[in-house]
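Journal club side-thread
Mid-discussion, someone asked how the predicted structure for our own chain would compare to the paper's figures. Pasting it here so we can look after the session.
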Amino acid sequence: MIFDSIKKLIIYGLEKGLIEKEDVIYTQNMIIDTLGLDEYVDSGKEFSDIDLEETLSELLDYAAQKGIIENSPVYRDLFDTKLMGLLTERPSSVIKKFNALYKESPEAATDYFYKFSCDTDYIRRYRIKKDVKWTVPSKYGEIDITINLSKPEKDPKAIAAAKSAKQSGYPKCNLCRENEGYAGRVNSPARENHRIIPITINDSPWCFQYSPYVYYNEHCIVFNSTHTPMQINKFTFRKLLDFVTLFPHYFVGSNADLPIVGGSILSHDHFQGGRYEFAMAKAPIEKALSFDGFSDVEAGIVSWPMSTIRLSSKDTKRLSALAEKILDSWRSYTDEDAFILAETDGEKHNTITPIARKRDEHFELDLVLRNNITTKEHPLGVYHPHAALHHIKKENIGLIEVMGLAVLPARLKEEMSVLSDLMVSGKDPATDERTEKHAAWAKEIAKKYDDINKDNVDGILKHEIGEVFVKVLEDAGVYKCTADGRAAFMRFIKSI
């Protein structure tokens, strides 16, 4: 009965503190209007501990049956977000609560806002639970692996509708402030239940929110209040350090600002952070460094497959000044013997992926050296996953991967399931179109293990995927973890 589903949604809002008892009739009326009803009948049934996914599914099924929406994933997502938007407080109220709690502690503020973002279903917890996650030990530390299943896949009808839909420049991108409360369309996600916290970093207006896909604990996004392109410069370091000063329990980092080595969104200046310690952050210093004029800043090369310089100091201004010096040097640095070219045909290749965190009284900056040069042999990038690894990971190595978390495509779940069956049965993976791309890899795996059976095959494949990702990171490192690679790395250090 549709009225029971409406009642359950309202009770959910009460249970989570999204609405107060005084809001019940008002919210009820907004929901029945959204569902095309003109009345509400209470069955008298009592409900508690509401399953949000189940309740929303009931409401969406009703909307589809009545022809209010098309029964497809995109349209269902647009409509359930509209329903949840009816339970979501206005931005001013959320901001006031956040700021009041921040006066108690930064942790109290983010705890509130993260829970709120989950309870409003902006972060769809029930989908994120479907992501496949595991860890793999490596010589660089414990590597995180996730097969991402929480991003909704577009159905053919929605794709067709998106092609014929009027192209809009509003919002300019999925990060823009104008997404807050936006109803969405077939080619732009609904955000009625989305709220943003304004913050100030480096004396400029920025915004704080959470990622709807939370690849790791409290995965947040910090973005410029203005739609402006990604750029790594001296101000980037100041902003990153300002952010961890405001939220010392979070790390924050920026994608690089060049194609291939940058993230998926280069059109809008933004950072990613959160409450999580990656393998890279735990990696020790392999070799101590010193820089002229910066004896007060501790520095060293990190024991990590990506070429990383770590700086540490209590003084953020000194950290930022040295980081700026290193960036300027790297932008123009060429070492043909190491195949590091600052530019070719007017195209610049060198940039940095920076990450900031606070440890006790010290601030840290990890500066990861990046280069996006391509060749005929490596058309997608020399310092990019090489072709032999594309069956597992072909996409850009952005900030999250740099830190030691592999975000792998959803296709791998089915492919690994099929592959495990074929390997146990002794059949050639090349005979199945889903696993053909993995055939050569599977043969190499078979050589490494005396016995592959139904009890151990899943564990073996997970371990081997981890091994592939380590190779991906090694491919992406501009200086390899070899004697020659480290010698070349030191040539750059001495040039600064």
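Post-session note: The first strand starts at residue 132 and ends at 138.
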